[in-house]
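tool_call: predict_structure(chain=1)
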Amino acid sequence: MEKPASLGELRRFAQKFGVMLLVDKDSKRFAELGLRYAQLSDDRWLQKLSEEPLLLRIPLVRNANQLAVGADEGTWKAWTQR
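tool_result:
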């Protein structure tokens, strides 16, 4: 099921992977907002990601308590083989 990530959900991913792994630095929106040299706190990045979903590296996938960021087909396959 696809739905927008809430701030709480983004925090879960950030705790596991770090905030900057969630940011798609190659996205058009990242460039449009001039964020290349931005020095934001993790909390501010999370807020920005919740307000600007086009900045997210996608997909963000949750399988029960397991998480994956980006096209991580190896992880997804491992989840289905259990």
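agent: The beta strands are 60-63, 66-69. Proceeding to next step.
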